């Protein structure tokens, strides 16, 4: 690529993609370490799959049935095979399990963490690349595996300092919804498009309320901006039945299940209602019924779900920068997908899984004031005499050998600029040794955090010079002990 004389390439990130700095990465690492600990406590083991899969491995389970092959980033390799960046972590798991079926234990319990990619229009808070953390059980048809996922999700949120009462794990069953669809005449593959429209309408219940969903189930809805969204075109009876379904949640799980049973009587939904009853009983017995609830409004957008589905929803409100109340809503979800592995094997392979949206949950924890505190940078050894670089390298090595992160200043500036550099590095401590200190076998150690706090109360230069805030001169042999003491503060 050539450029005109005097012009330069513009540095910019691609739309929908974002850089992440050290503070954000450290916070994400601390959060994912806690998630990993909980998953491993429940007996799940780590697995890593590639970012790229053959596109046909995704098959009909692409994210948007209206635009197959457009919801993912795809390209052809040198032998003209179509490849795609993974849309989620579930389809690659299904391929891995099918490929290694004869050698893995069944049920196969694994967790995976990493970026996923969606070829969709980016917007505020909506990225084309984001992080997910999944756990899945493959090879068990028991709904206890689904109940276990919901209980583990509750344990995970609490391990991340989301308190009880600030979240709910909501559970439904796609078979119940299939029964409702059958009852209103939308069963069968020929009605797939209208069923998807109904699913999308139900999924907007929290945002639009019952009246908004009713409009989307019927002729359509015009929003505040004047844009019109075409509805599913259901008649009044069908619309009423769907609304009765999504609003069937009662105070007690048994009452919710009883209502659902009446709505799906004589359809495939009866099996789904029975499964919800089993899940509710298991949750009650395990002591999670105050956190895991049966809620028919949960539908999940992906088509590959075949049974129980669930979402982890944050229920607290915070204010945005303009003082307006906002809710984060769902920060994770999942469900049973018994047909996904079977696509590769031609035989039943039941599976269920749960996925946490790491980036969204991290933002929510920050809003709660419970994000991981910013990690300090390394100790910085200032370079006072350029001809003594070896001495400064040795001091940094001594600190590192004691397990203390340390570096020497590699620029060419003086002491004032070096201190400014240490501040930008979030360094808690600076180590200073001039030629006179070296001759005396001493070293000066400065607590930069405490010094900043103390300097705010110093009135003039003479007071600064006399007090030399948070700074001590010690024998060189005491370097490690002195730095450790300052870091412990």
From TrEMBL:
It is an enzyme of class 6 (ligase). GO terms for molecular function: histidine-tRNA ligase activity. Its EC number is 6.1.1.21. Pfam families: HGTP_anticodon, tRNA-synt_His. It is found in: Cytoplasm. Keywords: Aminoacyl-tRNA synthetase, ATP-binding, Cytoplasm, Ligase, Nucleotide-binding, Protein biosynthesis. Residues 35-373 form the Aminoacyl-transfer RNA synthetases class-II family profile domain. It catalyses: tRNA(His) + L-histidine + ATP = L-histidyl-tRNA(His) + AMP + diphosphate + H(+). Belongs to the class-II aminoacyl-tRNA synthetase family. NCBIfam families: hisS. Homodimer. This is Histidine--tRNA ligase. It comes from Terrihabitans rhizophilus. The lineage of its organism: Bacteria, Pseudomonadati, Pseudomonadota, Alphaproteobacteria, Hyphomicrobiales.
